[in-house]
Amino acid sequence: MVLGLPQTSHDAHIQRIDALEDRLTASEIRRANELADGNSKWEAQRHRDRTAEILAYLERNVVDLDAMTVEAEGDAGQADA
């Protein structure tokens, strides 16, 4: 019985350390997953915003080109007269 007490005490300490390690590991995995999810959402929003910016830029260029075409046609008509 006396020889079993140190082993029992050691086992109890190891069990507590293992439980703490499991809790810490689970907590870190959860935090890492939350961070990855947040980054994914931010990245998707950034891509949507950038795509909208590029589309607005293209539309602005089309409007400018149309205006230049109308202006050039008007100048060509005046030159013929």
Main attributes?
81 residues, mainly alpha, 1 helix, rod-shaped
Strand content: under 5%
> What is the average of the pLDDT values?
92
Q: What share of the residues lie within helices? A: over 70%
Oligomer: single chain
Q: Calculate Rg over CA atoms.
A: 35 Å
How far is the N terminus from the C terminus?
Answer: 120 Å
Can you describe this structure?
The chain is mainly α and 81 residues long. The protein has one helix spanning 4-80. It is rod-shaped and about 115 Å long. The N and C termini lie far apart (120 Å).
Q: Can you lay out the helices and strands and say which pair or pack?
A:
Elements: H1 4-80
Offer a concise description of the structure:
The chain has 81 residues and is mainly alpha-helical.
